[in-house]
Amino acid sequence: MFLSKFIGSARKCIARKRYIAFLVLLIASTVFYCTIFHLEVICFRVNLEKKISTICEKFNRNEFSGSLCSEICSHRRDFECPENASKSRKLAFVIGSESSRRITVKEAPNTVDALKWLDRDGQEHFPSEVEFIRIVNRTMFFKYNTILPLSELREFLGLRIHFGDTDIFHRFLEDTWRLVNDNDYMMAKIWDNMELFPKIYGSCGPFFGEEYITPFDGGNHLEILSATDWKHRIQKAVLILDFVEELDNNLITMCDIKLTNFGISDNRLKYMNLEHVFSATFMDRYISDAKTCWKDVQCSFKACRSKCSKNIEKCTNRQMNNNLQIACDKIFRGSTYSPGILVTSRSTKSLLNLLDQCADPQNNIEADPYRPLGPSKEIRNALYMELTNIYDSLTFIN
Questions:
Q1: What's the pLDDT at 10?
Q2: What is the widest separation between alpha-carbon atoms in the chain?
């Protein structure tokens, strides 16, 4: 009897000590995480301050040129880190305030093929202005299916400026070449008049500025939503459906899509990260490059899917899904562990069925005849009508 009481008391004591140890470990881990996160943000701000100082020093020495230089340097002490800045592929910061225009400044990556070449004697050579224009035109035609007249291309590249110094001109060519090879910059600049992407406000060396747009909230994945939250999700989905249709009309394809990359500017829905947004012509050519394959996934790029030609074991087919399929799969329907914005306890059975048909069409009636892994226009129209009816019913109730 005494022994059993002793053993029970000892077990309670051990359990209490383990609980206390667990709490101490949890608190220590939380403090450590917050400290590291805080240091990461501080370090990032320090890096930005150094980078902005370098930009302005080079501008003052005429090593950087461009319409954005003066604006960056006038805000060198007035900048913000964008959301998820420490995870960004590009160095980016926001300048300006609510009373003035706010600009997101990004840096074109320095990973492109060199523009200059060396002769036998080790002397550097750069293309002339005319040769550079030809190189850029070829690049624009290959990647963006676009050719500009000479006068427009000169303005596009900022070649209106007269360069008296050869070294300054060569640095300008190298910086401009980096911008020309930055998909974010080029997609926004080429399709500027369509108002699908952020406006480009100019450049400074290899840096460029685009309009600041507040991103959509990623939201949570809770099944239980208020009527107001559900109404907001329906609104976003309808806007994205219209946006996707505009992309199709302009032969643009999105190989990656995230809700938090969307935002509203001037009453227009715009998409902010264009790293994986391409002309449909380029993606069809890129994805059917005849590389060896054994399964379909080897002929895909991100969310842009194709099929392996099994008889010859080559990727020879164009992109087989479309923008609507990618939006349904990544944003509207989502997955079991990460439901999309339209999969909730409030979703109607007919809506869920349409989302399945949109994300994974099973027959010729549901599929796009040109891109059979994507849904047809009939599915798009049915989905649009379903969402409109749900929205109208919520408006009537409220």
A1: 46
A2: 101
Residue with token string 């003066």: 70
Cβ atoms 199, 188 nearer than 8 A: yes
Tally Cβ neighbours within 10 Å of residue 252.
25
CA dihedral 178, 180, 184, 185 (to 10 degrees): 100
Token pair, residue 195, equals: 């108002």
Q: At what angle do helices 280-287 and 129-144 cross, to 10 degrees?
A: 80
How would you class 176 by CB atoms within 10 Å of its CB: exposed for 0-12, middle for 13-18, buried for 19 or more?
Answer: buried
Question: Is the CB of residue 394 less than 8 Å from the CB of residue 231?
Answer: yes
pLDDT digits (tens, 9 = 90+) for 129-168: 889 999 999 999 999 999 888 888 988 888 865 566 888 8
Which residues, listed in sequence order, are joined to residue 105 by a DSSP beta bridge? 93, 209
Separation between Cα atoms, residue 365 and residue 26, nearest integer Å = 55
DSSP result, 359-394:
HS--STTTB-SSSTTSB-HHHHHHHHHHHHHHHHHH
Question: Tokens 């059917």 belong to which residue?
Answer: 288
Helix then strand count (H, E) for the chain reads 11, 11
Packing angle, helices 129-144 and 166-180, rounded to 10: 0
pLDDT of residue 209 exceeding 60, the answer is yes
261, pLDDT greater than 90:
yes
Q: What is the pTM of this model?
A: 0.83
Q: pLDDT at position 327, please?
A: 98
3-state secondary structure of 205: coil
The pLDDT score that the predictor gives to residue 35 is 43
Contact between 202 and 209 (Cβ < 8 Å) = yes
Residue 367 is encoded by which pair of tokens?
């599929």
Report helix, strand or coil for 249: helix
Q: Are strands 124-125 and 117-118 parallel, antiparallel or unpaired?
A: antiparallel
Percent of the chain as helix, strand, coil, to the nearest 5:
50, 10, 40
DSSP state of 26: H
Residue pointed to by tokens 């077990």: 11
CA distance 135 to 222: 51
- Can you tell me which residue has the tokens 């950087």? 64
- Look at residue 222 in the predicted model and tell me its pLDDT: 57
Residue with tokens 């070649």: 159
H or E segment at 93?
strand 92-95
